[in-house]
Amino acid sequence: MRAWQVHEPGEPVAALRLEDVEDPVPGPGRILVRVLAAAVNFPDALLCRGQYQLKPPLPFTPGLEVCGEVIGAGEGVTTPAVGERVVGLSALPHGAFAERTLMEADSALPAPAALDDTAAAAFYISYQTGWFGLHRRAALQPGETLLVHAAAGGVGSAAVQLGKAAGATVIGVVGGPEKAGLARRLGADVVVDRHREDFADVALEVTAGRGADVVYDPVGGSAYSGSARCMAFEGRIVVVGFASGVVPRPNLSRALLGNYTILGLHWGLYARRSRPEVLRAHRELTALADRGVVTPLLGERLRLPDVADGLQRLADGTTAGRAVMLPD
Description:
Elements (H helix, E strand, L loop, with lengths): L1 E5 L5 H4 E5 L9 E10 L2 H8 L15 E9 L11 E5 L10 E5 L4 E2 L6 H5 L2 H14 L7 E5 L4 H12 L3 E6 L2 H10 L3 E4 L5 H8 L5 E6 L4 H6 L3 E9 L12 H7 L2 E4 L2 H7 L1 H16 L7 E6 L3 H9 L6 E5 L2
Parallel strand pairs: 8-9, 8-11, 9-10, 11-12, 12-13, 14-15
Antiparallel strand pairs: 1-2, 3-4, 3-6, 3-15, 4-5, 5-7
Helix pairs in contact: 2-12, 4-5, 4-11
């Protein structure tokens, strides 16, 4: 089969090689999956660079998130059955930027029937992360104000939709007019182009000085420091990631005087340690997808040979929505 391989860490365009490799063999508890579509995520770029918290042995195939058809199973696996369409995480070092991949059988979830392969591939991580960030960590309430950074990106766009579904007023922060248009289409009540306006000033203005109850921040850097200037009393900042490349150093004195809370969110820990909650979230998210309330914001459709260039564009911050690879 064809698969992208990383032999030495580096930028995606330099580190990735498209090669012919043997099909992976599912061991006990694993399933072999024909890749129908694979989402392209920022952590895939970090994997290529050797900067992700998981460091699979070299060479490895990146591609964390997949929608696929079960075509084989290892010892002890009875579900999901061969022929089922599933979504979830690939089992590194056999990632999803390939024609076939492996998954842990007990982590594979039914693909939402309302979503085609492309949308289903982009559904799992972003919406699970949003659900846990907004509901489990921040306890977002109807009528509250939610400020979402990178609102036209993969993770941020899911948070905008989930915030609206929860009854919040959503402020979407984006970079550029094209992304501003996408955030409006997603349903953001107020959209701020950070290249033209100070988002903290806008948040204070539209809330009559009260500030944002919840901030969803997958960016870090100046996005975090600006958010600290516009927090409501007993507000919550959910730290989701550092796509800017800058890990902020919180001013704890400001947090104390502002009486707001800083919440870390590493969704992968829930996937490993709180399986019942992940299943519950998937049921609720699937119901929202069935009703058309949430739909992944899709960007580029990539063919397998295009993955390295597409992942590099995502790493460089020039993409909008979720890029998805279709291997055929």
